[in-house]
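Fig. S4 source data, part A: sequence.
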Amino acid sequence: MVKRTGPTTLALKNLIQDLRDLSKKNNVKIWWRVAKDLEKSTRQRRAVNLYKLEKYVKDDETAVVPGKVLNLGTFSKKTTVAAYQFSEKAREKINKTGKAITIKELIKQNPNGKKVRIMG
C-alpha cells in the first residue's frame, strides 16, 4: 500500500497552515474545511466549471473553490471567486464581470469568512 504523504509544494503547505491558524484564531470553521479539502491528493481535489458557479453563486457573494476552476460554461455574475488554481480562460471570463482571486488574497480581505460559500 502506498504511504499518504500530503501536499508537497511549499506554497500549498503554507496556505493550509495559514488557513488553520486563522480558523483557530477567529473561530471560523469555513477556513478549517477549506484547509482540509486542500490537503487531499490532486486527484481528489475539487474541480468546478464556470456553469456551476453561474448556477449556484449569488451576486455579491464570494465563492471558494479548494481546487481548480475550469472554463466550461459562461459567467455573468458580479461575484468574487477565490480558488487555489484557475485555468487561463476561466480567469479571463470571471474577470470580465466579477473578480478572480487566490485563496490567500481572500483570507486577507475577509478573515471572518462572511458571505463565503464553498463550491465543488
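Fig. S4 source data, part B ends here. The chain has one domain: 10-118.
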